[in-house]
Amino acid sequence: MNCAHAEFYGHQRLAHYRATGEFFDVPIGVAIDAIDEVAKQFAINMDLARPKKRGGWGDKWLPQAFRHVVSPCPHCGKKNKIHMLAVPFIPKCVKCRRNLSG
To answer: Which residues fall within 8 angstroms of residue 11, CB to CB, at 6 or more apart?
Structure first.
């Protein structure tokens, strides 16, 4: 994997949200979607991390870091992709921008 290419594609996906230099003012859901798209192009083969000569995992690929669920908005009914994150946050509907927590 070429880290420079991955970073370049990530910056391209987020160019509209660039603040200054390498800083972006972007909603977390948009950032995660962009990173997921870039990560799909640069999948990590687990054999590279642990070669077969050391008891590798065979031909397995590292899964994406963030899982998501699809949930309809209780206000407008729009289906929203909600990412499971390690930090607390209140997701908002992409259509009506109201909180999805009810």
So the answer is: 18, 22
pLDDT digits (tens, 9 = 90+) for 52-63: 555 555 555 555
- DSSP alpha helix (H) spans, the chain: 3-13, 28-41, 46-49
Neighbours of 39 (CB within 10 A): 19
Contact call for residues 82 and 91 (beta carbons, < 8 A): yes
| Beta partners for residue 71, in sequence order | 80
CA atoms of 11 and 37, how far apart (whole Å): 12
Q: How many helices (H) and strands (E) does the chain have?
A: 3, 4
Query: What pTM, to 2 d.p., does this model score?
Result: 0.48
Q: Cα separations (Å) of 28 from 42, 56, 57, 61?
A: 21, 34, 32, 25
d(CA 35, CA 12): 11
Q: How many residues does the chain have?
A: 102
